[in-house]
Amino acid sequence: MGMCHNSSLLCLKEGWISLEFPYSRFGDEEGHENFHREFVCSLAKSERYRLNAFAVALLGLLVFPMKRGKIHTSLSYVVCMMARGGKTIVPMILAEIIRALTKCTKGKRYLEGCNFLLQLWADEHFYQRANMVDNIRRSMGIKNINHHSRMKYFVSPIGTKDWFMYLRECSATKIQWKYYWLKPRCVIIRGNELYFIKLIGLNGVQPYAPLRVLRQFRQI
Known about the structure:
Elements: H1 10-13, E1 16-17, H2 20-27, H3 31-34, H4 43-48, H5 50-63, E2 71-72, H6 75-83, H7 90-105, H8 115-126, H9 143-151, H10 160-169, E3 197-201, E4 204-208, H11 210-216
Antiparallel strand pairs: 1-2, 3-4
Helix pairs in contact: 2-5, 5-6
């Protein structure tokens, strides 16, 4: 983003930066002047990178979080590809959430995935809807817009202890395995040779088995 390599920053060798780093250089109006030795571009050109720096900070803190507010430096390449247009990071988000949940099942206490999407996923599963005929779902509009109105009837646990108690007492009859969002038709997703799809995540390739996931939603 128009900056030279800073060998004095040990965190760069470990693949992360703090939020203060991009903010002090791109968020502050005098950032280029205060850190001019770190830039290899003019002030006018550095202005073009301000939006990229904001996107890196946003993704690093909310979508691909690390412990203690660290921001993954590889996100700079992701943002550059997105800026060119025609790219989506949805498969990458899915890959990192799967990776993060797998680590949590092995005892890790921190989710390195998008907490907002995980919260939405949980609320949609635990929300008990009334029995409805599948063929009237098309009239319900865009499902993520209706999410807020549905959640008015779901009393969500607050805090870690409440969630632990809620999940311990939760039974299969209290979980909605089929989303509002999935249309009532057969869905078949598979690769040419393997029963899983290789998703390229921020930390490498993550296998994703859609057939296994779709069975939870009573789909083929």
